[in-house]
Specification:
heterodimer; A: about 425 residues; mainly alpha; Cytochrome Bc1 Complex, Chain C; two-stranded antiparallel ribbon; 4 strands; about 5% strand; globular; disordered N terminus; B: about 270 residues; Cytochrome Bc1 Complex, Chain D, domain 2; three-stranded antiparallel beta sheet
């Protein structure tokens, strides 16, 4: 695994590598890169997300050549892509469903990190960069959904941009500044197109930082313990290149099935109606991947006031916005909320249960977000929102102190080489810091 | 679309169903007014992963659109040339197009003029603009039908239900809370609707001799409108089957390679 410092290859490769050691770098970071030998299939989703990003940029680039970012042309230009552009329907359906699959893959990637404590020292910055990627993805996806200029495009954009009006004093001005006018209109569409085109490249840049931070200490692993020596690690190539390739094959089968047989399954039918500022759809619902956050936004249906005075400190709308953005801010703060020295949920008997309750809570939030904001759904969303915040602010900090973790194995190689049986010689000792 | 159930299974297999199901619940319109019936669910020939459009039905459906619906509804996203895809010959398409007059110009003198449509022209709209359409129809412009089969969760069942659901008198339960305004009709799936019942028995004479029952016309035109909304559906499904067959083989090979490479480690 040790690099001899020069790349093999032709004279030309050596000539270039001497001046710009790019071949050495590639070899070091993609071939030899030492990786824990025990990574499970849950570790496939990082590279999968990278591949989906490439698919999105490639299809998006070609779609942008045919799309017209003008309110009078946008809807018809998308339909022209669907009907008259060679292979346009395929590109557009790949891009449209690719957004959903990007979020499926990234959400699994995030929950894997949550379960195995991948955010813990020394990987805090790696985690923070991941949260930043999620935020950028959400912005990109939201603006992309506006581009076809259907009913949900227009009204979704109206609802979400209006959130900023909740900011005291300057809110209204900010919203008009975002819109470039007094409602979501042509200037809004135009700038959303520009940012939808730009942000994916920003994501690529942050992904590189994410990988850089990853390669500093290498991947976490299902045991959550650090490698004790070379016997615990294997070179990335061929072991994980082939494992990732196999995972990609499985992913592409599912992706191709949705694109080919149910391309509108994850979309909203209303977006096949051209945008009409005079007709509001009965239920304005965001794409499924925003539903948990949408539920939290709508869960705050009450003003927060000083008791008995009637002085409102935080209006319901601002409260909802704070809760929604707070839910992502908590993700960023996670490395400092969960202080348990044990990374992997496998050795945290209590945390393990709360992890699954939290996952269920997110699904419940998603379901509440898809339902009309009335009656029982609001109450359910409020309870689920409360639990979301309790999980981060109370349960994880308390578990860090109260939970007694199971004994950790002595090394990665040991349980793997011995078939994962009894963890011989493993004593309850705190995890070593790298 | 009904290709969902095998797909749901796939998604579940991948453990994604919980993520996926939340997104598709929209308020069922039928349930909101008492006394209305749920939209029917027909068996369409194009359903399923091997589904194809019934060419004969599409052609009859075009005839229904052309002779009945086109009086009020546009089909702006289609051109006459597109009809070749449903089995009309280039000569037939030329003849169909020539039956409509479209505005063109300006000519060398700067004047607009009318000429017979050619296959390259888009379907001629019955009204010059939305205002004229609304004015001619009691204030409600008849919607363009190009995407009608995709813009509700019911797909082509929606148009079939609208066309076949008219009843003389609304049921008692419905009338308790709702009423018909002047110029409105009762439809047992939708409630009040401004469109007059467009289909009656033997309204048209099918060129292939099929009996023109209301059911037959509604079925044919719904088929036609599904094709109009999703003209590349057959190509999409067939491409998908080929892609998935390839991917299955490819993935099995990758799995074998993976097993072989990892065997060295254990």
């Amino acid at each position: 695994m040790a690099s001899n410092g020069t790349a093999p290859g032709s004279k030309l490769v050596k000539w270039i590598d001497h001046r710009l050691p790019i071949f050495t770098f590639m070899r070091h970071e993609t071939h030899e890169y030492p990786t824990p030998r025990n990574l499970s299939y849950w570790w496939n989703f990082g590279s999968l997300a990278g591949i989906v990003l490439v698919i999105m940029i490639a299809t998006g680039l070609v779609l942008a050549m045919q799309y017209a970012p003008h309110k009078d042309l946008a809807f018809d230009s998308v339909e022209r892509i669907m009907r008259d552009v060679n292979g346009g329907w395929l590109l557009r359906y790949i891009h449209m469903n690719g957004a959903s699959f990007f979020f499926i893959v990234v959400y699994i990637h995030i929950f894997r990190g949550l379960y195995y404590g991948s955010y813990k020292p020394p990987r805090e910055i790696l985690w923070l960069l991941g949260v930043l990627i999620l935020l950028l993805m959400m912005g990109t996806a939201f603006m992309g959904y506006v581009l076809p200029w259907g009913q949900m495009s227009l009204w979704g954009a109206t609802v979400i941009t209006n959130l900023f009006s909740a900011i005291p004093l300057v809110g209204e001005s900010i919203v008009e500044w975002l819109w470039g006018g007094f409602s979501v209109d042509n200037p809004t569409l135009n700038r959303f197109f520009v940012f939808h085109f730009l942000l994916p490249f920003v994501i690529v840049a942050v992904v590189f930082l994410h990988l850089w931070a990853l390669h500093r200490f290498g991947s976490n692993n299902p045991l959550g313990i650090d490698a004790k020596g070379p016997q615990d690690k294997i070179p990335f190539h061929p072991y994980y290149t082939v494992k990732d390739a196999f995972g990609l094959g499985v992913f592409l089968i599912v992706f191709a099935a949705v694109v080919s047989f149910a391309p509108n399954f994850m979309g909203h039918p209303d977006n096949y109606i051209p945008a009409n500022p005079l007709v509001t759809p009965p239920h304005i619902v965001p794409e499924w991947y925003f539903l948990p956050f949408y539920a939290m936004l709508r869960a705050v249906d009450f003003d927060i006031a000083i008791p008995f005075t009637g002085i409102v400190i935080i209006e319901a709308k601002l409260g909802g916005v704070l809760v929604m953005f707070g839910s992502i801010a908590l993700l960023a703060l996670l490395p400092w909320l969960d202080r348990s020295p044990v990374r992997s949920g496998r050795f945290r008997p209590v945390f393990k249960w709360f992890f699954w309750v939290f996952a269920l809570d997110c699904v419940i939030l998603g379901y509440c977000g898809s339902q009309p904001a009335e009656g029982g759904w609001i109450v359910a969303a409020q309870i689920a929102t409360l639990w979301y915040f309790l999980h981060f602010l109370a349960i994880l900090p308390l578990l860090s102190i109260l939970e007694r973790p199971k004994p950790l194995p002595a090394s990665i190689g040991e349980p793997v080489l011995k078939g994962g049986g009894t963890l011989a010689g493993a004593a309850a000792k705190p995890m070593e810091k790298a | 679309m009904r290709a969902l159930s095998p797909l749901r299974g796939l998604l579940m297999a991948a453990g994604l169903s919980a993520l996926a199901t939340g997104a598709f619940t929209t308020g069922a319109l039928a349930a909101e007014q008492p006394g209305l019936e749920h939209y029917p669910s027909l068996d369409w020939h194009f359903e399923g992963i091997f589904g194809t459009y019934e060419r004969a039905s599409l052609q009859r459906g075009f005839q229904v659109y052309n002779e009945v619906c086109a009086a009020c509804h546009g089909l702006d996203l289609l051109a006459y040339r597109n009809l070749e895809a449903i089995g009309f010959s280039p000569e037939e398409v030329k003849a169909i197009a020539a039956g409509h007059r479209v505005e063109d110009g300006p000519d060398d003198a700067g004047d607009m003029f009318e000429r017979p449509a050619t296959p390259a022209d888009r379907f001629r709209s019955p009204f010059a603009n939305a205002k004229q359409a609304a004015a001619a129809n009691g204030g409600a412009a008849p919607p363009d039908l190009s995407l009608v089969a995709k813009r509700t969760e019911y797909g082509p069942d929606y148009t079939y239900a609208l066309l076949t659901g008219y009843e003389e008198t609304p049921p008692y339960a419905w009338s308790q809370e709702n009423s018909l305004l002047p110029g409105q009709y009762f439809n047992k799936y939708r409630g009040a609707i401004s469109m007059a019942p467009p289909l009656t028995e033997d309204l048209i004479e099918y060129s292939d001799g099929t009996g023109a029952t209301v059911h037959q016309m509604a079925y044919d035109v719904s088929n036609f409108l599904m094709w109009a909304a999703e003209p590349h559906m057959e190509e999409r499904k067939q491409t998908g089957i080929k892609a998935i067959l390839f991917l299955l083989v490819f993935t099995v090979i990758l799995y074998a390679v993976k097993r072989k490479i990892w065997a060295k480690l254990h």
